[in-house]
């Protein structure tokens, strides 16, 4: 999957506060302190951020006690060129109430829809941590490639 990008050296930055980080198998990763999000690209920490939540975490973040803190995190993501709210689990898990929280599924989904619009933040579901890790690696490679293309074009315009 990543062989055609072998000329690009991409390293995933994992926030040092992330307690159970994803395991990356295609790209190197390093622990780092990130301003926002749980995952970024080393060298692009101000433009690429992924906020990861499990379905349980998400449901608890929708409750009034935790919501303000979570919204503050999402607000910080607004300035990033590439950002995602990555949920490990499925929409069906939310609909079926497969989480440990008092909040009803309809409220979780409505809150997600609100966050998507309010913070211009695409929400992506990945059913497993492995699938989530591969998604982050793919996005990191594609974003790095686009930055390198732009740098190449700009360097030619100054010659």
CATH topology: Rossmann fold
CATH classification class? Alpha Beta
- What is the mean predicted local confidence, pLDDT? 92
Share in β-strands:
15-25%
Tell me the distance between the termini: 34 Å
Going across the major beta sheet, what is the strand order?
2-1-3
**Helical segment tally?**
5
Q: Radius of gyration, Cα only, in angstroms?
A: 17 Å
Total number of distinct structural domains = 1
CATH 2nd-level architecture = 3-Layer(aba) Sandwich
Helix-strand makeup class: alpha/beta
Shape: elongated
Low-confidence stretches: none
Q: What is the N-to-C order of secondary-structure elements (H for helix, E for strand)?
A: EEEEHHEHHEH
Q: Portion of residues in helices?
A: 40-55%
- In total, how many beta strands? 6
Main sheet record = 3 strands, mixed
Quick rundown:
By secondary structure, this protein is an alpha/beta fold. 43% of the residues lie in helices and 19% in strands.
Question: If you had to describe this structure to a student in words, what would you say it looks like?
Answer:
The protein has helices at 55-61, 64-77, 91-95, 105-118, 129-157, and strands at 11-15, 28-32, 39-41, 48-54, 82-88, 123-126. By secondary structure, it is an alpha/beta fold. It has a single domain (8-157), classed as Rossmann fold, CATH 3.40.50.10130. The strands form two sheets. The chain has a three-stranded mixed beta sheet, covered by helices on one side. The chain has a three-stranded parallel beta sheet with strand order 4-5-6. The radius of gyration is 17 Å and the shape is elongated.
């Amino acid at each position: 999957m990543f062989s055609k990008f072998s000329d690009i050296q991409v390293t995933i930055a994992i926030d040092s506060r992330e307690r159970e980080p994803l395991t990356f198998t295609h790209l190197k990763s390093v622990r780092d302190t990130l301003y926002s999000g749980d995952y970024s690209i080393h060298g692009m920490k101000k433009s690429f951020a992924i906020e990861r939540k499990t379905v349980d975490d998400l449901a608890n973040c929708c409750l009034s006690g935790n919501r303000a803190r979570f919204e503050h995190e999402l607000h910080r993501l607004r300035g990033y060129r590439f950002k995602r709210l990555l949920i490990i689990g499925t929409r069906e898990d939310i609909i079926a109430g497969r989480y440990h929280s008092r909040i009803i599924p309809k409220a979780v989904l409505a809150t997600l829809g609100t966050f998507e619009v309010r913070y211009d933040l695409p929400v992506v579901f990945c059913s497993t941590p492995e699938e989530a890790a591969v998604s982050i690696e793919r996005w990191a490679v594609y974003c790095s490639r686009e930055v390198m293309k732009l740098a190449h074009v700009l360097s030619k315009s100054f010659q």
